[in-house]
Each structure stands twice: as C-alpha cells, then as structure tokens.
Design goal:
Blueprint: H1 6-11, H2 32-41, H3 44-49, H4 51-65, E1 70-71, H5 78-82, E2 87-90, E3 94-97, H6 115-118, H7 120-132, E4 139-144, H8 146-155, H9 163-171, H10 173-196, E5 201-206, H11 214-231, E6 244-248, H12 255-259, E7 265-267, H13 274-281, E8 286-291, H14 300-314, E9 320-324, H15 334-353
Parallel strand pairs: 1-4, 4-5, 5-6, 6-7, 7-8, 8-9
Antiparallel strand pairs: 2-3
Helix pairs in contact: 2-4, 4-7, 8-10, 10-11, 14-15
Length: about 350
C-alpha cells in the first residue's frame, strides 16, 4: 500500500504538505488535445460512450499539468438517457431532450435501469482510467443532483429562465417529486456502481440549486442529495474510504445544511463567504474551491494575488482542496492553468511550512 494521496488526505481533513488542486471541467474544450479527440469521436455522446477515448481525455490534464486528482470524463445527462429519455447534443445549442417531461402521466416513461447494462460503458471507462492513472492520482466519479438533472428533463435542455420546472414546484409538486424520487434511486445505483468499479471519490454536481428559494432548495434539492449521501457505499473494493463531495452552485448560504447531509467535502463557489463558513464548519467537513474562474483570464501577478487570498481565507486548518468555484471555459488559455497550478503549489507549500 503506497502513501495516501494528498487529495484523499485533504478530504479526510488530515495534514498535508501542500494543498491539492484539481479544476472542474479540467478535461475539456480549452485543451487543443481534447478538441482533436472530440473530432475523432464524431460526436460528444460517442466520446462519452467510448471508454478508450474517455480515458484519453481524462488523462490529458493530468499529463499536461500534473494535477493531483482526475475526474472521469462523462456527462451528467447519461443518467436520464439510461432511464429512457432521448438525448441529443446539438452544435451551438447543447443538450436537448426532444420529448421533455410535462406531467405525472409522463412518469411511466422513466425506467429504473439496470445500471451495469445501460451505463456499463462508464464503468468500463473507470476501470481503464484507474489502470492509466498514477497511484498517487485518485479518480473522482460523479453524477448530477436529481434537481439539476430534472431541470434539463423538464425544460427540454439548457435554459436561463427555468419557467417549466419552477411552474411544476407550485402547480404540480407531486409530479416533480415523482421525477426527483426516480432520479435519486437511479443516481444511488449509478454512483455505487462507480465505486464498485474503482472511483475513489464521488462528487454530486448541483449546478442549479442556486436558482431556488431557501425553502425550495431544502425540499427539492438538498433532501434528495442527502438521501444519496446516506445510501452510498462508504468504502471501495480495496477497503479505502470513498469521500463524497457536494457542490451546490450559488448555495454558500446553505453550507451548514449541506454539511449536515453527511457529505465529507463541501465545494464552494466564489460567491461564498469562506471565512464565515470555515469558522463555523472547519472541524466538521473539508472544503473545496473556490477561485473565480475568471481569474484565469488575468495576468500572472493577479493570479498569484488571488491564489494567496484564497489560501489565506481557507486558513491553516487541514481540509482544503483548491479548485475553481465553477468550471473551465472553452476560451481559457492552458498556459494560465499551468501558471495557476504552479502558484498554488508554491504558495501553499510555503504557507503550510510556516505553521
């Protein structure tokens, strides 16, 4: 058994010699090598469903930047597709469900899939990724939160207004809870399968939790994520602990409630009051985040200033994973990512050494 990776130490709030770093959407369209593989795949879904290509894309940022963690390359919407919904990715439009869910009678269209059969390509990719990764670089598996998945399934794709799903909250909550319950059961099965096949940590992406009122966030998002956390396997096939990260974008105000779900790591975006949250919860959970991704458009001096500020906010207590407050954008410069990673390593090593 080798030394425990930095990322897993940080998740467990154990002391580290420097702050581990990975970036949401680290494998993606800002990398020229990704664009080459994406072209070879022919379509985004084909890229997700071809284990060798998904593995190659997962490995690209690890090779280029030497990041401390890999996250499997896939998409959150493979879950509703496995449940029977027809999914397309249209150029310039993003994901589209041509026949979105509208009312309770549509619930019969949602199947509880055999995840090994329907999502076996993900599990095959996880096994290939684990074989390709260095022993000190853990692999994160993931899924979308039931609320976030439901927004796409009811809206029919990407939206800025969320009119249809918000209407369901007030007009037909029984229907909406039916969708969320079905999704929760599938996500639990799917993530437990990821753990069985080698995922060493799990992240739940609640991208759209922040559009909800406090009461509705509790009822339609957090309640279902808490059920997922409760029902996930705590250890992998090797007996190692499998930490769970919850990321609810725009939900820093609910950090105490998120931590109470039983998750190991609360991932924060750049709008969160880190100092306040760290003071309240620092002994209970680890934290991930929370640099504003737009900092990557700035010159090196500004990147260094913002990294130092972020490290100072999270403070000397163990239990911080450096990440962006959301994902990489397609027009970001890979050279600035290398600058960011180098600065995080330099500054966090210096900061921890002073303790």
């Amino acid at each position: 058994m080798g030394q425990k990776p930095l990322f897993l130490k940080a998740c467990a709030r154990e002391p580290v010699e420097r702050t581990p770093v990975w970036l949401m959407r680290q494998a993606g369209r800002y990398l020229p090598e990704y664009l080459k593989v994406r072209k070879e795949a022919g379509s985004f879904l084909n890229l997700c469903k071809t284990p060798a290509l998904a593995t190659e894309v997962t490995m690209q940022p690890i090779r280029r930047f030497g990041l401390d963690v890999a996250i499997m390359f896939s998409d959150i919407l493979v879950v509703p597709e496995a449940m029977g919904m027809k999914l397309d990715f249209l150029e310039g439009e993003g994901p589209v469900f041509a026949d979105p869910l509208k009312e309770s009678s549509d619930l019969k269209r949602l199947k509880q899939p055999n995840v090994e059969k329907k999502l076996g390509y993900v599990y095959n990719a996880i096994e290939e990724m684990r074989a390709a990764l260095p022993a000190n670089v853990p692999l994160i598996g993931f899924a979308g939160s039931p609320w976030t998945l439901a927004t796409y399934m009811i809206e029919g794709g990407t939206t800025k207004k969320f009119t249809k799903i918000k209407t369901a909250i007030y007009k037909d909550p029984v229907f909406l809870h039916g969708v969320l319950n079905a999704l929760t059961d599938t996500v639990i099965d799917y993530l437990n399968g990821q753990i069985d096949h080698g995922a060493q940590a799990i992240q739940v992406f609640d991208t759209w939790g922040g559009i909800l009122s406090p009461k509705n966030y509790q009822e339609f998002s957090l309640k279902y994520m808490a059920k997922i956390v409760k029902n996930l396997k705590k250890t992998g096939p090797d007996g190692a602990q499998v930490p769970v990260i919850l990321f609810s974008k725009g939900c820093g105000n609910y950090s105490e409630e998120i931590a109470a779900s039983g998750c190991d790591v609360v991932s924060l975006d750049w709008t969160a009051d880190v100092k306040k949250i760290r003071r309240k919860l620092g002994k209970k959970v680890a934290f991930q985040g929370n640099l504003d991704p737009a900092v990557l458009y700035a010159p090196e001096a500004v990147i260094r200033k913002e990294v130092k500020k972020t490290l100072k906010l999270f403070g000397p207590e163990p239990g911080h994973i450096f990440n962006l407050g959301h994902g990489m954008e397609p027009d970001m410069d890979p050279e600035n990512v290398q600058v960011l990673v180098d600065i995080i390593r330099e500054e966090s090593t210096r900061s921890i050494a002073k303790q």
